Amino acid sequence: MSDTTLVILGATGDLTQRLLMPALYRLHRLGLTKDLRILGYAMEGWSRQRFEDHIHKALKAFAPDYTAAAWKRFSQRLDYAGGQLDPNDLAKIKDKLAPATLFYMALPPSLFGPASQALGEAGFAAAPRGGWRRLVVEKPFGTDLASAEKLRAAMHTHWEESQILRIDHFLGKEATQNLMVFRFANRFLEPVWNAQHIAQVQITYAETLGVEKRAGYYDHAGALRDMLQNHLMQLFSLAAIEPLSCWDADVLRDHKVEVLRSVKPINARNVDKHAVRGQYRAGTLGRKKLAGYRSEPGIPRGSNTETFAALRLEIDNWRWQGVPFYLRSGKRLASDCSEIAVQFREVPGALPGGVKADNNWMVFRMKPEQGMHLLANAKLPGLELDGHQVTLSAPYVRDGEHEFSAYEQLLMDAIEGDRSHFLRFDEVEWAWRLLDPVLRAWQGGTPDFYAAGSEGPSTQNRLLDRGQHWRSIALPDGGTA
Ligand code: BG6
């Protein structure tokens, strides 16, 4: 890598401390970013030393592999400049930028548009000869289709789409990337990865956490905007895409958009068949008593924001005709259990003796542990010809293998210019197109209540086809199947 500068706008904030700096520190420690200089930029008129002290404290708290020696080396890569997000102040850092520079907007979403414009007006979007300029931004990309388009227009005043790297951190997760590798690198899978053999797909992201200290943001967002429009929609499109003719960032994103465009539209008439929302009331998790959402600090007592959302999506194409994809995510649920679970259809033929075969499941688990599980039928040991379900399991990461966090993965890709795991605007756009009608339908009325620590509202069952059940979130066996 030749000299590169990473400018972090909002360098004194929470995202920088908790996620960006620990990731950059680790990459540096592993020798992957030797020529990277990091320039912090924020409103505070700090000295370089003050910024260093601030980051030092953050790494001690948030970098699991902190050592004083590695910090000493890393700290030499840091610099700081204070200023407003206006072109005149920004212009002052011009001499600190390498020909290859990326700007990371670790800023509140309301500043994404103004900051990208100010950078452009300072002349930073245009790359000097032999260099490049990139702009990194993390969700939320708008709060609906109209605001997302407005944001796009603001960012495109000075920046080309190809320079903008939109982060959805789920695309940096091992489990997400494995979904692509496992699907396309295994000959046995493709012939059965379709409606003829698959009965349903369940994508669940359950969290025991509540709204925590994010009341101000969350009460305006809700589960649909916070998790489904972006993270779960990415898992959904990756599970459903067609094989690629060549491995290229744009071809990949074309295929993902094609999936989103093929989803049967949800509208005011059919919304109840396709979407369910819930909100947690007081409840218990283990022995812990948990407050209801409306009693959480900072949440209005009469709030109707959903803390749980479930969708039924149907894809109108040859591969997936008649296969429901269920997506759900919620706060304060029974466990931190997250997975993409694919259920195969029943075997069609006669079975030996009294063997009973359950449907196979292929489960890509993200939490509590990362791994794959294939639920298959095998002979029950004994004199009789009986069957039972067994689980063939493989972890994603074995002892001694390097695991990279989503931020480490995505920062490395951003520096190297690999856009495969970043969102192109049309992905954002089509996800909003699909969900805007749901958001409109949910403007009135109240969500269905569920007890904190439960599996979510019972009304989620109305989305399912007859004979189907949601997989349990509270895993009795501690998460192996
Ligand atoms: C974030 C959401 O994008 O993703 C949070 O805003 C959610 O509400 C989080 O908790 C889940 O991601 P992870 O990687 O922390 O499990």
Layout of secondary structure:
Blueprint: E1 4-9, H1 14-29, E2 36-42, H2 48-62, H3 68-75, E3 78-82, H4 87-91, E4 100-105, H5 112-121, E5 132-138, H6 145-156, E6 164-167, H7 174-184, E7 198-206, H8 215-240, H9 249-262, H10 271-274, E8 275-281, E9 283-285, E10 288-290, E11 308-314, E12 324-330, E13 338-344, E14 361-367, E15 371-380, E16 386-395, H11 406-416, H12 425-441, E17 448-451
Parallel strand pairs: 1-2, 1-4, 2-3, 4-5, 5-6, 7-12, 8-17
Antiparallel strand pairs: 7-13, 8-11, 9-10, 11-12, 13-14, 14-15, 15-16
Helix pairs in contact: 1-2, 1-11, 5-6, 6-12, 8-9, 8-12, 9-12
The structure holds 6-O-phosphono-beta-D-glucopyranose (BG6).
Distance between the termini: 43 Å
Shape: globular
CATH topological fold name of the largest domain: Dihydrodipicolinate Reductase, domain 2
Number of helices: 12
User: Within the largest sheet, what's the order of strands?
Assistant: 16-15-14-13-7-12-11-8-17
* Secondary-structure arrangement, i.e. CATH architecture of the largest domain: 2-Layer Sandwich
Task: Report the sheet-strand fraction.
Answer: 15-25%
Bound molecules: 6-O-phosphono-beta-D-glucopyranose
Percent helix, as a range, is 25-40%
CATH superfamily of the largest domain: Dihydrodipicolinate Reductase, domain 2
Order of helices and strands: EHEHHEHEHEHEHEHHHEEEEEEEEEHHE
**Given the helix and strand composition, which structural class is it?**
alpha/beta
- CATH class of the largest domain equals Alpha Beta
The major pleated sheet works out as: 9 strands, mixed
Number of strands: 17
Q: Overall pLDDT, averaged?
A: 95
The gyration radius over C-alpha positions equals: 24 Å
Number of domains: 2
